[in-house]
Amino acid sequence: MVLGPPTDVRDRLVTELVVFGYRPLVPEAGAIDPNRDDRPSVALLVTDHGDDPSATLEAIATDELHGVPVVWVLPEKGFDLLRGAEHLCDEFVEAPYDAEELYARLRLLRRRTGREGPDVIRRGPIALNTATYQATLQERPLDLTYMEYELLKLFVEHPARVFTREAILSRVWRYDYYGGLRTVDVHVRRLRAKLGRDHAGVVETVRGVGYRLARDL
Amino acid sequence: MPAVDEREFVLRTTEERGIGFVRLWFTDVLGFLKSFAIPAEELDLALDEGVGFDGSAVAGFARVQESDMVARPDPRTFQILPWRPDAPGVARMYCDIYRPDGAPFEGDPRGVLRRVIERVSALGYTGYAGPELEFFLFKDATAPEPLDDGTYFDLTPLDLGSDFRRSVIAYCERMGIPVKDSHHEVAPSQQGVDLRHTDALTMADSIMSFRLVVKEVAREHGIYATFMPKPIQGAWGSGMHTHLSLFEGERNAFFDATDGYFLSKTGRAFIAGLLHHAAGITAITNQWVNSYKRLVPGYEAPVHVGWGVRNRAALVRVPLTKPGKESSCRVEYRAPDPACNPYLAFAVILAAGLDGIERELVLGPEVTDDVHEMTDAQRRAAGIASLPETLPEALAAMEDSELVHEVLGEHLVEWFLANKRAEWLEHRSYVTGLELERGLSKL
């Protein structure tokens, strides 16, 4: 997906992506609301000097697109824009960039974020297909319930991040839950039971904070 | 948005995993699992509109003239069943029962528990339950013939149950039911499985699944499993001791570091409520004639209404909280047996404790002497009441209990009393083997 104002840089980027075999989506300005089937494998954000992309970047991080890796396409001599905003993206290029370099960066990003195709995320023994909602452990299907699947997806999409129970509730349950914060513990326990004794540690407890995906997967 | 996602998740998973049929599960008033299967193609419609069925054939559901019911599957309970062949696989969903006009059906046990849970959360609490389920393995369903002579925690080749328990745990884990511990229980052929606590509704669902898993695994092993409370004359019975706790957000509402028992005022009032309503709710937690053959002295089953820390004959036990383990502070209600309806049992237990909190009931002193050793007069002096000794006594106490009427509603109370009194009438007029053995040669 390509985001940003309709500039020459953006139009050239779209053409390049098509050449590399991507199917770029270009939503109207401000309308980041792709339906599920079109969940992109990567979001490229094009900005010019004077644009403030932080609102868009934050929307990506929290909205339907959370977990989609972000590549920030900076304008010429625009490196300064990155200052203080580095955490909002996973990769960047600065114009004028070389098309081959962008392609290489996208390949490396895909490897680093564990995305095998637009829909499959893999971490160690776990693979999630976000289009078919199927989860596998060492290629064997895991028969998860909806909430267990969403919980595992949250961890797998953000491998380095520790989530507090509050954060998990607001991102996975969003509304409509019995049981307050302990609901999270109960579902983590159910998920661990399904992962089995050998892989229960895939979801790690961070004492006094919350949970995260195990770092040594 | 999430509602759409759940529906989508269920539909996509059904397609991806080649699920041929989805079983819709609900529970009758006595706690028997009811199920009907719909083909995967019907799932879409079932999720949107529910599935109509004839409630007149379900125990306690409706009189014949108002028998139309609608089962609405809860997509969050969609689970592929681990013991069915992979292709075409079978999945299940628990259902809530509604009337055709869209009103919740008051006789639906899951709905009864849901309503109590809503009251619990209106007070700012969440109720957690963790049961210890006991059951027996026999050669078949015709006679209580044990498979082994093992006893508590035994691990010997005699214990044919250990393979069995391994399979049960594996199935439970694949269904997302975390098992805390499993072991051989005191009586020959008796097994015990402790489930890790969850919120009360999830746990009631899990108990229904668990009982089915146990019966299913037994069938695979060519043996028979029973949750009958007292199947063997003279041996320990099967209980379902239930650990309960209330949380206010992250905080365990039962815990108070300054109290000698580490019990907060809320915890004490909850126990006082349980003790106050114990007699009235016993017909629900122990609903069979046979249940009362377990509630007798000498087998660590509760007989008297009291609480204690170490006393295993106490009706309510307070396991001492270890320092730094505030979250595990809980009370254990020891009356229920595993042949109860877990939805109704958790509903009346939680409501009893809640009533104690709302009315700020004061908890009496701990029962330290072995209450069984005391004379009736001593017990009266100490203010220790007895649990009902028989089903009809329990039914009378239930009929007098405003709390039970309020929690279950008139429809359920009326049906339950009629059904259970009919059961008692049958037993009352039955001439037993013991009477013949003792009487025939002398009288």
Write the layout of secondary structure elements.
The complex is a heterodimer of chains A (217) and B (443).
Chain A: E1 2-3, H1 8-19, E2 43-46, H2 54-62, E3 70-74, E4 91-94, H3 99-113, E5 120-123, E6 126-129, E7 134-137, E8 140-142, H4 146-157, E9 163-164, H5 165-173, H6 182-195, E10 203-206, E11 210-213
Parallel strand pairs in A: 1-2, 2-3, 3-4
Antiparallel strand pairs in A: 5-6, 6-7, 7-8, 9-11, 10-11
Chain B: H1 2-16, E1 19-27, E2 33-39, H2 43-49, E3 51-54, E4 68-73, E5 79-80, E6 89-98, H3 109-122, E7 126-138, H4 161-174, E8 179-184, E9 190-195, E10 198-199, H5 200-220, E11 224-226, E12 240-248, E13 251-252, H6 265-285, H7 291-294, E14 304-305, E15 307-308, E16 316-317, E17 331-333, H8 342-358, H9 376-381, E18 385-386, H10 391-400, H11 402-428, H12 433-439
Parallel strand pairs in B: 1-6, 15-16
Antiparallel strand pairs in B: 1-2, 3-4, 4-6, 5-6, 7-9, 7-10, 7-11, 7-12, 8-9, 12-13, 12-17, 14-18, 16-17
